[in-house]
Design brief:
By secondary structure, this protein is mostly helical. The protein has helices at residues 3-15, 19-26, 31-39, 46-56, 60-63, 94-104; strands at residues 86-87, 90-91. It has a two-stranded antiparallel sheet with strand order 1-2.
Length: 107
């Protein structure tokens, strides 16, 4: 089973929906087509993947098991962040924060 098929099963079952219900809402003529997505035998086209994400109220990235991306170019400004960063219970030094900042920015 793939991450994608596992996500489909999890999302559908969390809502208490049947495979037939999902297939009908996707406009599929055959429930078995949707079932094959869950079994990992087939993968939907891009349009159907988008419909699945919309139906389940998640992003396509989430549906595919990818980490969510933020709108800040995946960088973090640790200097302006109120989050407390620690390692083994000790606060990070400014030098350590700068190393993390560089790693996160790909430099």
């Amino acid at each position: 089973m793939t991450t994608f098929s596992e996500r489909l099963i999890s999302l559908r079952e969390a809502r208490g929906w049947s495979k037939t219900y999902v297939a009908n809402h996707l406009g599929l003529k055959n429930m078995q087509t949707y079932a094959n997505y869950e079994y990992g035998r087939r993968e939907p086209d891009l349009e159907t993947t988008s419909k699945l994400a919309e139906l389940f109220g998640v992003s396509v990235d989430s549906l595919l098991g990818r980490p969510e991306k933020n709108d800040n170019n995946n960088t973090a400004d640790l200097a302006d962040d109120d989050t407390i960063f620690t390692y083994k219970g000790q606060p990070l030094s400014d030098d350590d924060k700068e190393i993390i900042r560089r790693l996160m920015n790909g430099k």
